[in-house]
Amino acid sequence: MNQIKTAIVTASGKGMGAACARHLHEIGYKLALLSPSGSAESLAREFDGIGITGSVTEPGDLERLVNETLSRYGRIDAVVNNTGHPPKGDLLEISSDDWHLGLDMMLMNVINISKLVVPVMAKQGGGSIVNISTAAAREPNLKFPVSSVIRASLGSFTKLFAERYASKNIRMNNVLPGMIDSFPVNQDFLNKIPMQRYGTVEEVARLVCFLASEESSYITGQSIAIDGGLTKSM
């Protein structure tokens, strides 16, 4: 009898998070979903999954999400760390509070949930953590300063995590989307994309599901761009 596979997806009420949840469900994962708006609860009902209203910035909400997943399913095979949009503004006009909020949204969320799921994954023989980051982590953009800076640090954390936990078969990778169709179309951005179109949330979800699954079992510590050729760095 095949062991069931389970996945946690945060910020999964809409956009890329919801698309990831749908694709994971299609390939056989049982789901536990989190979002601050309540929409994850509605989506979870479609899949007979777990839906929790809460925030990735609140360690207590993450702990409740993990505990309810273990209570129902007994294991956690994959975690998809998605989050909302961080604060923006002119580089030195962004408040300290907004920088700290960005830290909580895009780095501490990954660290906090990793502390909760790594012991579970180690005991069951492995697991995969996938962080939805941004192409701006590799090529910083003044339009997205908080995201650019903090998600670059997420890339460093991911390298360290991979080195520390690869021997336990626990993997972590980052997905770096460029301009995706969950964002409003901006002609200036569109003109810079070699493919001359935005990506789709479904395209991002397919990459996330690949990295979450055993199909990518020898990939860890990587930051993989999905941006239509936008990123120029090697």
Explain what this protein looks like in three dimensions:
It is a single chain. With 234 residues, this protein is an alpha/beta fold. 44% of the residues lie in helices and 17% in strands. The chain has helices spanning 15-26, 39-46, 59-73, 96-124, 145-165, 187-192, 201-212, and strands at residues 5-10, 29-35, 50-53, 78-81, 127-132, 170-177, 223-226. Strands 3-2-1-4-5-6-7 form a seven-stranded parallel β-sheet, sandwiched between helices. It is globular and about 50 Å long.
Oligomer: single chain
DSSP helical segment count: 7
Q: Which structural class do the helices and strands define?
A: alpha/beta
Strand order of the largest sheet: 3-2-1-4-5-6-7
Task: Assign an overall shape.
Answer: globular
Q: In percent terms, what proportion of residues is strand?
A: 15-25%
Average pLDDT rating: 96
Q: List how many beta strands DSSP finds.
A: 7
The percentage helix is: 40-55%
Low-confidence stretches: none
List strands and helices in order, with pairings.
Elements: E1 5-10, H1 15-26, E2 29-35, H2 39-46, E3 50-53, H3 59-73, E4 78-81, H4 96-124, E5 127-132, H5 145-165, E6 170-177, H6 187-192, H7 201-212, E7 223-226
Parallel strand pairs: 1-2, 1-4, 2-3, 4-5, 5-6, 6-7
Question: What attributes does this structure have?
Answer:
alpha/beta; single chain; 234 residues; 17% strand
